[in-house]
Amino acid sequence: MPQIANFKPTLTYERPGNPVSLTGVRHWLSALFGALSHPARKGWKGRIDALGPTDTVALILHTIALSASGRSARFNARTGYDTIERHYRQLDWQTHRLLGARVGQRLIAVAELAPTMVDGQPALELGLSVLERWQGRGVGARMLLQAIRLATRDEGVPLVLFTSVENRAMVALARRFGAEGTLLGHDYRFVFAPEPGLSAAA
C-alpha cells in the first residue's frame, strides 16, 4: 500500500494571471484569523522587522483585516480589496521602506514609509496601521518610534505623517515624539525633523 503520510497536494486556484497555492491560502487565512482572535494582552513585547517582497501576501491580509475605518485612516480614502492588492503587488521596494510587528508569523502592525517631498526636500511619508485588537498596547508607539529613527537617523530625511484631527491617539503620539504639527483642513500634518548633522545628501 503506498505511503501517503508525506503527501502534499499541489492544487492551485487559478486566478487570471495569478495562480495561488491552496496550501498557502490556508496558511495565511489561519494567520489572519489567529491575529483577529488572539487573546487580549496588557502589552506587546515582540520584535519589529523590516519587510520585503516575500511579505506581500501577509501585508494584504493584514490590511483587509482592518476595519473599514481603519483602512480609511491608513490610506486617507475608502479602500477595497482590489486596490489594496494592487497597491502591495505593485509596490516599489527600492524606494519604499516597510516595517512589521508580528505575533508568530502574523502581522499585527505595519509601517510604510513612502518617498515624498517636504518644502522642496526629499522626505518619507508614513502610513501606519495596527489591528484593532492590538491597539492601546504600545504597538503603535513602538512602530512610530522605529519609523522616526529609520527616516531621520538612518535615511537622514524628515518623516511626514498625515492624520485626521479625530485620531486623537495618533495626534498625541506625534506630539509626544516631538513633531511639528500643521492643521490642514480636517487633517494634521506632522513633520519629524532629521537628527542634527544628517541630511539626504550626507
UniProtKB/TrEMBL annotation:
InterPro entries: Acyl_CoA_acyltransferase (IPR016181), GNAT_dom (IPR000182). Pfam families: Acetyltransf_1. Residues 59-195 form the N-acetyltransferase domain. This is GNAT family N-acetyltransferase. It comes from Rhodobacter flavimaris.
